[in-house]
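User: I'm preparing a small set of examples for a lab meeting where we compare how different chains pack in three dimensions. I only have the primary sequence for this one, and I'd like the structure in token form so I can line it up with the others. Please keep the answer compact; I'll paste it straight into my notes.
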Amino acid sequence: MKHLKIFILLGTLFFHANGFSWGQDGHRIVAEIAESQLNDKARDAISEIVGRQKLAILSTWPDEIRSDKAYDYTHPWHYVSLNDDESIYTLENRNPKGDILEALYRFEKQLKDPELTQEQQWQALAFYIHFVGDIHQPLHVGNRYDRGANDVKVKWFGEDSNLHRVWDSQLIDYYGLSYTEYVSFIDIAPESTIAEWVKASYEDWANESKTMRSQAYKLEQNQKGETDMGYKYAYWNRKDMELRLVQAGHRLGAKLNEIFGQ
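Assistant: Understood. Below is the structure token output for the 262-residue chain.
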């Protein structure tokens, strides 16, 4: 556990809020929902890896290390790029350094490997939790031409931002809730709906994000010709954002039960 504590400390030292996927609260919402869904066997197996740490703590580590150049090779794993005329099911133009789909399959396989050390298991679990969240953020299945809307400059309540950042964190932060409060408000889907959600594949998750991202691009300009987003944009996109967070949480819980709880 000593080395695991060092990982968390490094993540804290290198943390910077801008440009990260879903933001801290988004990932913690997903992880908190997932942890509430674990069966006893999965909970015990995960405790052997993480001790008493909450999954919410692990969920942000892959973003926290992105300011450390030693982890630059992990950057492409947070997203997959495809344009509107491309299909995730037949995508051939893939990043040779990896992408989020490749990473999800790889870390799922690692988590099933009994030969991994505890340290390797901890890292694999942190990455897996994080990437399940990322793939449900619509702009992490982004267009190539604007780098998942990172190049779409906007103003958020008058402050300079970009569309990707709005979806990563600013939409969630706007409501001023802690991640545990947010979970209590949005985790209300019927069991029958959840049962359908968890049948979907990684590719299905990505395709849902691709389909949903068109709504994210519906922007209006003010009299100065600026894309100044605020109350109206938050209102029209809140349901989509919350749906993706809840879907990610329940799907992550189901996958962890499949991996650890059989």
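A couple of notes for your slides: The beta strands are 80-81, 141-142, 153-156, 159-162, 228-229. The chain is about 55% helix and 5% strand.

User: Perfect, thanks.
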